[in-house]
Amino acid sequence: MSKSSVAKRVPVSFTVNGKSHSLEAPAMARLLDVIREDIQLTGTKEGCGEGECGACSVILNGELVNSCLVPVIQAQGAKITTIEGVAQGDVLHPVQKAFLECGGAQCGICTPGMVLASLSLLEKNPNPTRDEIREGLAGNLCRCTGYMKIFDSVARACGSQQ
Amino acid sequence: MRAYLPDYEMITAPSLQGALEVLARGEFRPFAGGTDLMVLFEAGKLSHHKWLSIWGLDELRGIRVEAAHIAMGALTTYSQIQRDATVQAEFPLLIEAARLTGAIAIQNRGTLGGNIVNASPAADSPPALLVYEAELELVSCVGGKIVSRWVSYRDFHTGYKSTLLKKGELLRTIRLPRTLGAEKGWVQHYRKVGTRKAQAISKICIAAAARVEGAKITDARIALGSVAPVPMRCLKTEAYLRGKDLGLAASWMGEARAVIASEISPIDDIRSNADYRRGVTQNLLEEFVKKLSSGSTR
Fold it and tell me: Check: CATH 3.40.50.720 for A94-158?
């Protein structure tokens, strides 16, 4: 194997939060790193880097994924939503508003992933039960809240009784 | 330590034929949803450096329902499996396995084919596939043509992390015969034991089905994960159970537990230890038999 100090870059195009991006990146670069470093949207966080914690969650072609596990070449042509694309200007999404009201966010590292996982859940199931909320967020870890306030936030966002 | 990115290469192919031509040259290996390989990559433990992304090959996706079986493309994800009405109705063990693999974000990317060829003895879907007597279609490109062969999934794992796949071969289809219907008296059972429901890799996992007529077990299929170098069918235990009277289960349960303990070979590792795995395997068998006795079909 030839040793190189510079990774070969390939052209990749995709849409992030409605805006088209064309850039060059190593084919196997993690989508997470490209979003944070090349596109400079640092709302997407790195937690474990191995698909356990969900901090790096983004919505890729309508499906929640761990962006740390996606080689950027597999995002070619994709439509991606990151946490920066959730609010409409200064108007928070109801899920974000509920997280503020219920204390669903504390240190904030898990919050972008929690919010995207919640959006993804509510899109498929607008009126989840408490158990369905738990299952929908089971791939997102939080070390601060103890989860109850996060579950409350999702329940409030969809207007369900707690 | 993280992987050194310049050491790695990833390419794509426009079609299955194109992908097989690349694989036939032997330099590149297939890469699907990445839920296992990217973890190794991040940990600096991905020893192979040249990868062919097959994620874009839609011809490897989807579930086809035919009269005698269902055929799933190797890239069918766990999320797609859970949404399929036929799988829901007839293959509940596979639904359970899909639900208990990782969490939603993993289920959206993890593929059934990837779970099979990754060949971990701790994977969640293999025990279900063993009970359903899955057949695998392996394809390769020979002289510019796609050549296909079918193998029984039961023979696929030849040792720890080794399989029947030859260089240049790709898993294309997983086929499940539609034979274990509840109307024919089959009762199915799946249980994964891990540290938590989501994300955890199993300590022990069982998929089982038995046919009960009156109080008699007339047929049984039992498969286990995480208790041997490969996902395994428990043929001795199955043979032992055939013909047994559920009404007399208290008298033969001890012997059944001894039989299943004799055919597994669990080890101590980071997730559990051999003694615990042996004990829990026996308990899981007993739980299954109790379910058969209770008359519950799910």
Answer: no
